[in-house]
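Field log, afternoon session.

UNIT: design team B
ACTIVITY: writing a sequence onto a fixed backbone
BACKBONE:
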């Protein structure tokens, strides 16, 4: 039969919900502490509770060794010879007990033992509560409101108390002591005063649990909750999907005349709930999630970054955004995408601003292109073309319409502009350092600019050329006077000119030498080896000979 002391220990264990052996160990440790304090001994002390008699005995334990040379600490070791004097049955490797009287411990030792027992029991109780609830995080628990402590609500969970902080409460709810409520266990914290069980009524899991309770189709997994977003006390958006094509997921959650969802709204003290059908397509899902606003169009800006742009009518913008941005914020949480919402007017203004930026880009003067000859620049400026961007936007046919610009000049302009933009790109890639152009291209263009300066009207008559009425000189390379002198590239591949093309050149003023030379009198003699005489264009169906390279004689 168990002693009265052990019966008391057993009752205490059941009350605290801990193992009785833990309390017994606490009592034995308390006796050891009291005995060590009373005897002021550093021996290896132990205590033992006799379950039948209820007597607690304390004793010192020493290990038996073979000889004196093996003793390292006399307090914890004893030789076999000395041990046999006390206990004839002692053996090497065994333990020798020396009992200490406990009836002389007194009141102070008893008080110390009491403190040790309470401390051990509290620690055991904390560990039991922690182990009980740490595996139930996320579970919905029925609790009873116990009291209010500041802004926190203390609830009774049965074996422990739970704490509901202010941020875990819904602003629509208020509770009275003794009222029952369903709460979600969110976390278990270890604190100096014991484990703190934190519960909540603001997390989305509570709404999900309520739907599982009220909607049989969700309970049997016919309808699945795919996503849920909640702002407690304000609004909840829940996306559902049906595994059975004959079951309407939204209708199943709403119920007959809204009975099912109204029951959940009453539990949440009037919180608004939007039930949305889930779609795999984010564009369609976004349109549904932003209800009750009507969406004009949805554009995926970035698939990997999950970024959407939503355009709505001007009258629907405030409804789509919601009070303090609540509607679009909950829709973004529901989708898991970032949503930029704009009205039609805002989108139109954004497009206009982009167009203005493109159209109002800083103009680059033609003089910034190093490969563009001064004569060509003057002709382009005379035609109203003053920037590199304007030249780059023109087609070869449009450039040929400029007075004084021929096919070869168009080719030169194209090469010069391309080299200019290539140098800008290379400088940008190199960290802004200017990259020089190849020497061959620079020298060729420079020589061509020097030789064609007379044709452009910058200098006097070219050497060996016949002066014209306007102070210029006849070109030695043909009708195109756009600064092609000295340029031998592509002359051999130039197609043979026809009478029609010559007539076009005459009409556009590019073949002016033929008309001017005829009217000049008293022209100074020229060396026939250096000058090529141009005659009036031949008649119809007659071929015009190819242009000759500078310095060659026909």
């Amino acid at each position: 039969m168990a002693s009265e002391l052990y019966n008391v220990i057993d009752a205490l264990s059941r009350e605290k919900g801990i193992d009785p052996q833990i309390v017994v160990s606490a009592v034995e440790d308390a006796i050891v502490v009291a005995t060590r304090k009373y005897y002021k001994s550093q021996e290896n002390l132990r205590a033992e509770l006799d379950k039948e008699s209820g007597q607690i005995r304390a004793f010192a334990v020493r290990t038996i060794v073979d000889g004196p040379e093996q003793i390292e600490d006399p307090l914890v070791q004893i030789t076999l010879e000395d041990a046999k004097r006390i206990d004839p049955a002692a053996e090497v490797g065994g333990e020798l007990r020396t009992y200490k009287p406990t009836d002389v411990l007194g009141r102070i030792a008893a008080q110390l033992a009491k403190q040790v027992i309470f401390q051990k029991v509290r620690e055991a109780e904390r560990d039991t509560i922690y182990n009980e609830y740490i595996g139930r995080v996320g579970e919905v628990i029925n609790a009873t409101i116990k009291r209010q402590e500041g802004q926190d609500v203390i609830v009774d969970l049965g074996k422990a108390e739970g704490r509901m902080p202010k941020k875990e409460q819904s602003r629509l709810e208020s509770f009275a002591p003794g009222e029952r409520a369903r709460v979600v266990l969110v976390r278990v914290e270890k604190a100096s005063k014991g484990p703190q069980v934190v519960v909540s009524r603001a997390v989305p899991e509570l709404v999900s649990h309520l739907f599982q309770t009220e909607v049989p189709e969700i309970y049997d997994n016919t309808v699945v909750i795919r996503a849920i977003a909640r702002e407690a006390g304000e609004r909840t958006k829940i996306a559902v999907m049906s595994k059975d094509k004959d079951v309407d997921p939204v209708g199943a959650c709403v119920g007959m005349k809204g009975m099912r969802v109204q029951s959940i709204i009453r539990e949440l003290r009037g919180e608004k709930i939007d039930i949305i059908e889930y779609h795999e397509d984010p564009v369609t899902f976004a349109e549904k999630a932003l209800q009750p606003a009507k969406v004009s169009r949805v554009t995926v800006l970035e698939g990997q970054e999950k970024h959407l742009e939503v355009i709505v009518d001007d009258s629907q913008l405030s409804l789509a955004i919601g009070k303090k941005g609540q509607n679009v914020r909950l829709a973004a949480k529901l989708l898991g995408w970032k949503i930029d919402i704009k009205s039609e007017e805002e989108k139109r203004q954004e497009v206009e601003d982009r167009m203005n930026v493109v159209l109002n880009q800083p103009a680059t003067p033609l003089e910034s292109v190093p490969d563009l000859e001064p004569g060509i620049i003057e002709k382009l400026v005379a035609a109203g073309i003053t920037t590199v961007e304007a030249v780059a936007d023109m087609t070869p046919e449009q450039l040929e319409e400029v007075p004084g610009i021929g096919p070869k000049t168009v080719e030169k302009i194209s090469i010069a502009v391309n080299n200019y933009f290539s140098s800008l790109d290379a400088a940008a890639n190199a960290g802004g350092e200017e990259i020089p152009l190849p020497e061959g291209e620079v020298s060729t263009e420079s020589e061509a600019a020097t030789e064609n300066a007379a044709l452009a009207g910058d200098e006097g008559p070219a050497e060996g050329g016949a002066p014209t009425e306007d102070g210029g000189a006849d070109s030695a390379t043909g009708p195109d006077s756009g600064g092609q002198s000295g340029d031998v590239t592509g002359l051999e591949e130039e197609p043979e000119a026809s009478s029609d093309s010559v007539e076009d050149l005459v009409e556009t003023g590019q073949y002016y030498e033929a008309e001017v030379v005829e009217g000049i009198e008293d022209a100074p003699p020229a060396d026939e080896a250096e000058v090529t005489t141009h005659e009036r264009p031949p008649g119809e169906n007659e071929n015009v000979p190819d242009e000759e390279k500078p310095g060659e004689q026909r």
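LOG NOTE: The first helix runs from residue 4 to 16.
NEXT ACTIVITY: expression trials, pending approval
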